[in-house]
Here is the input.
Amino acid sequence: MNKAAVKIKKLLIIYPNWIPSNAVGVQRVRLIVNFLKEFNWEPTILSVNSAFYEEEKSDDLLQLVNKDIRIKFVNARKAKKIRIYGDIALRAFGNLKRKAIEIIKNEKIDCVWVPIPPFYTALIARKVYDATSIPYVVDYIDPWVHDFPGSHKFFSRAKFASVVANFLEPIAVKKAAGFTGVSEAYFLPVLQRNPHLKVPYCRMPYGFDEKDYNAKPSNNKLLWENESHIKPYIYAGAFLPNAHYFINILFKIISKMRTEETLDKNARFYFTGTGKTNLESIADYARMYHLEDIIIEKQERIPYLEVLHNLSNAAGVLAIGSTELHYTASKIFQSILSTKPIFGMFHYLSSVIHILRETNAHTYLIEYNEKEPGQDFEMRVRNIFEAFMNQKNGWNPAYDKLGKYRARSSAAALVGLLNAIVK
Here is the structure.
């Protein structure tokens, strides 16, 4: 007796950036969509034509996505030098909404999934729902409503962003059928702020795909290409507003070690993809402690495969997190899989702590507790950082423990939620 054919369900993913965009969120979507067909869900990605992207592009990323993924593109308003807004979701808002409605009507879509940020994508999903009644799920890569740095100043861009977030989020999520996110701490407060939402949810870490490490970047140059006989240490990722406390202490310690001649003279510290903000930069802190010659900042992001290449050839990795307890580092898997020792600094309640301990990658880990006196914390950081620089305690992670964090597992979690919604 033949088994009945399994019905293939259809998922529309609205995300304004797609490969070759080097935006962080592209990796979130890419890691998930590669596995959805294994669970009988066929994804269609609705995005914006790459001609309208502002960030750098990397054709190397084409190596990392399944060739059979269906993608639909729309145009957007061009970003202007002098502008009121530049967010790509706003520049393509109407086109994305209209195309999504068209796809749903023509292709019998079962559900819509919208990762945010860009946060205005969630508003598009709400508009599409109003027109089609197709359920939508919002995926929180970052929290929308939070304490924006500088929002205490009444007449500031940060204050305006905070007001807009508090006003728009409840509108965007009001009809949501479910929530996903890289951390429960990003979306559980949404449910608390909107108690009428009695909907399913699940946590889905970024995860990783080991196949990424078989792909080769077209640019094999290292950040220290023109330097010889040095020991490079790398931090790859944004310089977070709540990481300044950690960086200030770390650079202070590096400066003291250099003065005391206990710092390896060949050590160099490379910070890449840190981004531009109105706060102090890595370079500012380096100048403050007279470390400009050994601490090098490249604020622009380098392509994803180049990041993996640099991490794998470094002497060690700096994983500097945040003083916020809900912070979860998507890049922690890249750091562990680089096979290089990791010096990490995270709040003791961060989910990253569990991952590092579970994989025995916590040898040089600093667990921050705001109740610990600052002087004691600084002394502890110094002791562990010195051990890290001297490789005093060795390095032997349990890579086999990473299995449950594969992107396929995150895709399976999403599918479980989608099936519950559309059954």
User: Anything to note?
Assistant: The chain has a mean pLDDT of 90. The CA atoms of residues 151 and 318 lie 29 Å apart. The chain is about 35% helix and 15% strand. The radius of gyration is 22 Å.
